[in-house]
Amino acid sequence: MTPTYPTWSISAVQGVKKTTMELWNSRKDVGYYEVGVFDESWEPIPFVTAYRIIKIDYLSKVKFDIYIRTQDILEARYVCSLSKLRSNDESKTLLATRICSKFK
Amino acid sequence: MKKLLITLSLILGATPILAENIDITGTVQSRCTVNVDTPGAYGNPNAYTLTTAPASAGQEPIVRFDVSLANAYKAEVSYPTSFSSSPSLTDTVAWTGAVTVAQTSTSDMSGYQAASSLAGSKRTYALTVAGTTWFKSTSIATYGGGQAKAFPGGAYKSYLLASCVAQ
Q1: ipTM entry
Q2: Which structural domains are found in chain B, ordered by start?
Q3: pLDDT digits 0-9 by tens, A76-87
Q4: Region B91-104: what's the mean pLDDT?
Q5: Which of A2, A93, A100 is closest, CB to CB, to B159?
Q6: In this structure, are residues B133 and B104 in contact, taking their beta carbons and an 8 Å threshold?
Q7: Domain annotation for chain A: domains and CATH numbers
Q8: Is residue A98 less than 8 Å (CB to CB) from chain B?
Q9: For position B31, what pLDDT does the model report?
């Protein structure tokens, strides 16, 4: 996900605001990313999106909306995409990558 | 002459204003990307230790950060503190590890390690220079809570978390 400084805008639902993010996959070995919203202490903040785990091909882009309650907006600090890793039978360390945009 | 001027002014006044929309387009490329440079692997120097140390037939994972904008991002790299999958373990596993700068694309980044901060297993670097930085991590897992018990046979996996966070 391109790290940016997104802002919240009004949505069609009262008491709920939304922001639009763009996800870009730069990892050939990863096909799925999980979206999360966090506060300053990296505690999760409740939010809604069409799919929390998004399938995205290598070097492709996906746009998606994130909805959050107005009362949680001041606490929401980061929106992040976390790579989802595939399992296999080797003893190894895998690399999970996370890109985070920041609400200011 | 007066008639000519009047006629000319009427013609000029009737000339339609020609306007054309000129599109300005732009693409914002990702200014911070994180990729795997070298996947890690555990070596098993004795029955109760798993380590990524090359001296023990392990391989240290290396992650690459590419940043095209200075002073805009932080790199946060955490070494593992648990297995993401393993055989059933009945005793405790002690974890140690470290994250260090393995390589940089410019000498201006030479102070990254000294300026970094550590909180638990997570080391944070301020990416103050545009370019590429490679970070490597060591991971050591010891089984048995100090009793040096043998790890059960099977596949063990853990993962390193590398984050690029907007400042």
Answers
A1: 0.80
A2: 31-166 (2.60.40)
A3: 999 999 998 776
A4: 95
A5: A93
A6: yes
A7: 15-85+95-102 (2.60.40.10)
A8: yes
A9: 81
